[in-house]
Amino acid sequence: MIKVQHLSKHFGSVKAVDDISFEVQEHENLILLGTSGCGKTTTLKMINRLIEADGGKIFINNKNVTEQLPEALRLGIGYVLQNNGLFPHYTVAENIAVVPQLLKWDKKKIEKRTTELLEKLHLSADYLKAYPNELSGGQQQRIGLARALAADPAVLLMDEPFGALDNVTRSKIHAEFKALDELKRKTIIMVTHDVQEAFELGDRICLMDKGKIIQDGTPAELLFKPQNDFVKEFLKEQRLLLKFKTITVKSLWHLLSNEEIKGLGPGILVNDKDDLWTVLERSTFFNAERLNMMNLENKEMKTVSFESLMSAFYQYQKGDSHE
Amino acid sequence: MNEHQQTLWEFMRQQSDKLAEQTLQHIGLTFISLFIAVLIGLPLGIFISRRKQFSAGILGVAGVLQTIPSIALLGFMIPVLGIGPKPAITALLLYALLPIIRNTYTGITGVDAAIKEAAVAMGMSKWQVLFKVELPLAMPVIFAGIRTATVITVGVATLASYIAAGGLGEFIFGGISLNNTNMILAGAIPAALLAILFDFLLSRLQKLDSRKLKLAAFSLPVILILLSSFYLIPATYATKLKAGFTPEFMGRQDGNLGLQSKYGLHINTVVISDAVMYKAAYEKQLDVISGYSTDGRLKAYGLVVLNDDKKIFPPYYAAPIVREDALVKYPELENTLNLLAGKINDSVMTALNYRTDYLHQTPERVAKDFLIDHKLFKPARNGNAGVIRIGSKIFGEQYILANMYSMLIKGYTDYDVSTKTGLGGTKICFDALTNNQIDFYPEYTGTGLLAILQPQVKVVDSLTPNRDATYQYVKDQFDKKYQVKWLKPIGFNNAYALMMRAKQAEKLNIKTISNLKRYLESK
Ligand SMILES: Nc1ncnc2c1ncn2[C@@H]1O[C@H](COP(=O)(O)OP(=O)(O)O)[C@@H](O)[C@H]1O
Ligand SMILES: [Mg+2]
């Protein structure tokens, strides 16, 4: 869907982006991850031509972006900024309607779409007439997202979209983000410097440093097959947490065997798509002694204890094997 | 002139037609200029917000324009644009430009970069970004600029009367020259009220929320055009010749009023400042002007004085007038000032004035040359027995006289001198004298009689033809009323006079004011 080939950009002597190439499949969510100043924003802005590249090519749907009018190109690409960039002189409704207006949709259609989006983003219709400064940070960010989604573009570019939010709000929005059906139909490139966020939301991650892509792969690949020390170092602090979040029950399935567990403690039902973090959270919450595992593919059931699950996890790590 | 002391209210009622006309002209002038200034300033402001390399240059030029003194700017325009509304509007709009350009520029460049980027990223074109995002967000700042420009323009528009463009300045400057406080206030109060009113209205507009501001932004041009239409080109009736009279001349018995009542002279007249009147006559913008018979520009611009055959212009013999307590305090002063008595006749004075007004020699040099030629000059003694403050009105002749007196005092006495030259008009000069701000200044008998004493018409009529009687009368009256002493006359008579271009007067065979009247009435 999106192909980036040998893309470069320098500002004076600073090589902000240095000959990078990657591809994003349709409906995939690619994360550009890296520390501040590594060239993520510059890369993103070259895709909708807010910044013109010095070298290299970008194709969206096999069309070279530089061969289109920038305005027309941008009308087909949703864009979400870190500090939402909402128009302070427009109401919420007017902000959401910006792109449909530019595309000259009729009034009814715009209204319908606006209400629909507000509903999906769990915002009350009372806000339609409010101005951005009357909303909380989280609400503003949702409106920013709604504005980008309004005309239903196939591609969505997001630059640290949740970067300015507090932790509680951010994890709430993460959950909503994952659940939003609209986004499942989009090809998304999202920029973040937050490793957890990248692992939580990304299908694939490009880890960048000094204008170059160091590793391009799934979260699990980055975690378990780090290409070099930089990648290892980058993920080190949150390694355990990330592993819990990356490894699913399914990947441990072959290491688990059915057990007889005595006692009256409660059990919980877990399916093979859940990651270990989720299982952990849920079992702690219910104080569970039995984990009833269900393989959704072949309907096989295994009941295991929490301890067996953990030992399977360590065994898995030692083998360093994964799907 | 007035039979009893008129109140301001009576004056305004009596002059209500003129007041209304001047006020409307003033509003009209202000808003035509403002409208054009917005039309030019807004796009220029937008332009320099796009091409920053031009911003310093354009803001610099607009800034410099604003520092040019208004009268000078008006003067520059006469050769190009003539007199009347065109140069007035041009000058006013030039003054209004800076705040409009500057605020448009700051307003637009002040819009949050992230918001502009968002607008571009949404797919807006350059123009859409400008009209949908930048201008609306910059609007409060732009409004503030227009507000500043409005207040400046209302103020400067008073000067439009200098070049025959009407407005409340006619009363203000007429009143200053005529020593008529009511007339000054009748112009100044409405002008101040207009400034306050427009400032208030625009401040309300500025406080509107952004939604209503959109409406306001659209209605503003309409309002501006509407208010502009108040500007009626100063009412005139067509005659063969066009006259330009100073505001002072317009309101005086020994000026336009006398021309109408005693000669029955009716001529298409505009009100214009003394500073630009001669030039306008030379440039053929005007045919007949009210001047002073010793004015150097008479010679410079090839003008001739029409003979006052019915003697309506009283004699204007010049003499220093001094506060009597100053004469006591500085005993040598009187004799020193009288050194000049009888030394300068009309033609000498005209020649001296010519040197300053036309040859642009400094009054100081002209004064010194004269004193040396007449063996009156002595080098300064640099004494410190007290400081004598000399005043002068704001024209060349007075500057020359002030300089002569200054040199005489320094050379013949141990007093030092400070000069306060360029006091706006008779009223300002005379008030400065009686309020002990200056010790003496050169005054004219006719002015003392008509502008300061203002006796009944009968008295004026009986004195006017006689030079000595007039001098004696003002001398006695000033002594009695103000404790101010008229010293001996210097010699020349700088009376009012009607003048025309010499060539035209010759061609039309006009030598006297009666000739002029006859010519105007001939078919
Ligand atoms: N407009 C610019 N002018 C000069 N240097 C820039 C500009 N934009 C970015 N840079 C530099 O390019 C590098 C990459 O910046 P950026 O893409 O914004 O990084 P990131 O988004 O990863 O934090 C940084 O060193 C930054 O200072
Ligand atoms: Mg960035």
Summarize the SSE layout with pairings.
The complex is a heterodimer of chains A (323) and B (523).
Chain A: E1 2-11, E2 14-24, E3 29-33, H1 40-47, E4 55-60, E5 63-64, H2 70-75, E6 77-80, H3 92-96, H4 98-102, H5 107-120, H6 137-149, E7 155-159, H7 167-179, H8 181-184, E8 187-192, H9 195-201, E9 204-209, E10 212-217, H10 219-224, H11 229-236, H12 239-246, H13 249-252, E11 267-271, H14 276-286, E12 290-294, E13 301-304, H15 306-319
Parallel strand pairs in A: 3-8, 3-9, 6-7, 7-8, 11-12
Antiparallel strand pairs in A: 1-2, 1-4, 4-5, 9-10, 12-13
Chain B: H1 8-14, H2 16-50, H3 55-67, H4 70-81, H5 85-109, H6 113-122, H7 126-156, H8 169-178, H9 181-207, H10 210-228, E1 242-245, H11 247-250, H12 256-263, E2 268-271, H13 274-282, E3 288-292, H14 296-300, E4 303-305, E5 318-323, H15 324-329, H16 333-337, H17 346-357, H18 363-373, E6 387-393, H19 396-412, E7 416-423, H20 426-434, E8 440-444, H21 445-453, H22 457-463, H23 467-482, E9 484-486, E10 496-501, H24 502-508, H25 513-521
Parallel strand pairs in B: 1-2, 1-3, 6-7
Antiparallel strand pairs in B: 3-10, 4-10, 5-8, 5-9
Adenosine-5'-diphosphate (ADP) is lined by residues 11, 14, 16, 34, 36-42 of chain A.
If you had to describe this structure to a student in words, what would you say it looks like?
The complex is a heterodimer of chains A (323) and B (523). Chain A has 323 residues and is α/β, with parallel strands linked by helices. Chain A folds into two domains: 2-237, Rossmann fold; 247-318, CBS domain Like. Chain A has 15 helices and 13 strands. Chain A has helices at 40-47, 70-75, 92-96, 98-102, 107-120, 137-149, 167-179, 181-184, 195-201, 219-224, 229-236, 239-246, 249-252, 276-286, 306-319, and strands at residues 2-11, 14-24, 29-33, 55-60, 63-64, 77-80, 155-159, 187-192, 204-209, 212-217, 267-271, 290-294, 301-304. In chain A, the strands form three sheets. Chain A has a six-stranded mixed beta sheet, sandwiched between helices. Chain A has a four-stranded antiparallel beta sheet with strand order 2-1-4-5, with helices on one face. The relative contact order of chain A is 0.12. Chain B is α/β, with parallel strands linked by helices. Chain B has three domains: 3-230, MetI-like (MetI-like fold), CATH 1.10.3720; 242-310 and 498-522, Osmoprotection protein (prox), domain 2 (D-Maltodextrin-Binding Protein, domain 2, 3-Layer(aba) Sandwich), CATH 3.40.190.120; 318-494, Dipeptide-binding Protein, domain 3 (Roll), CATH 3.10.105. Chain B is built from 25 helices and ten strands. Chain B has a five-stranded mixed beta sheet. Chain B has a three-stranded antiparallel beta sheet with strand order 8-5-9, sandwiched between helices. In chain B, strands 6-7 form a two-stranded parallel sheet. In chain B, helix 18 (363-373) packs across helix 19. The longest helix of chain B has 35 residues, at 16-50. Chain B starts with 7 loop residues before the first helix and ends with a helix. The mean pLDDT of chain B is 87. The interface between A and B is medium-sized, with 20 and 17 residues. The structure holds adenosine-5'-diphosphate and magnesium ion. Magnesium ion (MG) is lined by residues 40-41 of chain A.
